[in-house]
Each structure stands twice: as C-alpha cells, then as structure tokens.
Amino acid sequence: MERARRQSGRVPIIMKFRHRIKFSPIEGHDLNQDEAYFYLVEGNHELRFRFHDYHEIYSRPGLYEQIFYDRLKCSSPKKVGENLKKVLDANEQPITELRALDLGAGNGIMGEVLRSYGVSRLIGVDIIPEAKAAADRDCPGTYDEYYIADFCALEDDIREQLDDWSINCLTSVAALGFDDIPVKAFFEALNSVQDGGWVAFNIKETFLDNSDNSGFSLFIRELIFSKYLNIHHLERYRHRLSMEGVPLYYFSLVAQKMSNIPEEFLRNCEVL
Length: 272
What we know:
By secondary structure, the protein is of the alpha/beta class. The protein has helices at residues 2-8, 54-58, 63-71, 76-90, 109-116, 129-138, 156-164, 183-191, 215-224, 263-268, and strands spanning 20-23, 37-42, 45-50, 99-103, 121-126, 145-148, 169-172, 198-204, 229-241, 247-257.
C-alpha cells in the first residue's frame, strides 16, 4: 500500500486495516471497465460494488487505493503529472505558476501529485459529496478549494468563483468517458481555463479509435485536430491492470488551450 502511494505521489499514511476484497475475473471477463465489479466482505456480509460505485468506495478509508493502486497498479496520476511537468519545462513555463482545476478530483490523488510539484493554487471539483469528504479525510490541505458541482448545469455563483481563481490549467485523470464526466461537463471545464493555459488528461485508448462512435470519442478526436488545442504531448501507456491481470492502455495528453470552444463545436459532434 505504501509503495503504491509513493508511486502516485501520495504521502504514505498508516492504514489501520486492509479491506477484504474479492475479484471474480471469470464473471467479469466480458464486462466493460465501467461494468466491472468486486466483492467487499464486511463482517458477515459480502457486498457487490461496481468499480465506478465511487460513493460507496470513497466512504471506506483506503478502499480506493487498495483496489486501484495496490491490486491493479494504476499509474495514471504519476504519468499525467510527469508529462505535464515535462511539457512545461520544455516551454520554459514554471509549474509553480499554475492555478489548476482538478476535474473529477475524487479523494485527491492527482491533487497530491500536482501539489508535490508546487502548483500555485489547486481547486478540486467532483459531483458527489463522498469525494470531497474523502479528500478532506485522506488529503487534508491539498486543495485550496473543493467544489461539489455538476458542470453540466453549473450554478452561477460557482462559475463566478471559478472565474475569480483565474484558472490556467485543467487536469482530469481516470475520470473522462464512461458517463462519469459527460462531454458537456468536460466542455465547460475546458472553457473555464484561460486562453494560453494548459490541459492535461488521460483517456482510454479506444476513444481515439475511429470505430468508437460515442459522443465522447467523437468530441475528443475532433478536439485534438481543432484550432482550440495545441497538442504538445500524446503518449500511450499502461493505465492499470484488469481483474485478469491484462494491461489496460490509455493515452496521456498535454495541450495548450488556444481559445474557448463554441457550443457549435459540440453540436457538430452530435453530443448535445
């Protein structure tokens, strides 16, 4: 567990206990990533949760890390953080001047990677209260502010507060696609970044495949070749293992935002 925390950038903490979890690779063999599930043994009860039942997972200290970082060897926060730092260094842009919005922040693992690089300001956002509670519990002091907000229907007061932060960087790790963060939400987050700011995120490799006709895949592919982003780094890497021990590959992308994306762009991608 401590090794996994070091690899993700997290300061090791002593866990009081390890959860009793069971994987069923045979049953999950033909399931999509967002459909995969595990069993959690609590007392005399065996509970079944999907990997994306974040409200249940975050409510149990250490469970998220034990599943995804200890058992499944997730490397994405470290990878995306390293690539962002490399691009900024190559462009002589100090990472310490970033005012970053961490979209889909969860319990703060990516936030701790960014904080370890010394970003100036760090704002977390997630849609479920359990994520903020877990971040406050597991990573106290990591975020300067943490909002529970739906970026598909962003409230005016939160939008004004985000504007006041003068955000010049957006990160999103292991959160895009699978309906966790809809296209509209990602669109709004991108437009909250100042022109000339930086964007760093990861996506499942199939989202860049022409055979994927989902709205999110279409949006990402069109965005990469649009005038709104200037791509500086695109890298295929092993995100984590499946329950069967098979590598799952993602792309890590770092880009500079050139200008706001108009809603017409979304309509052309048939995602509104």
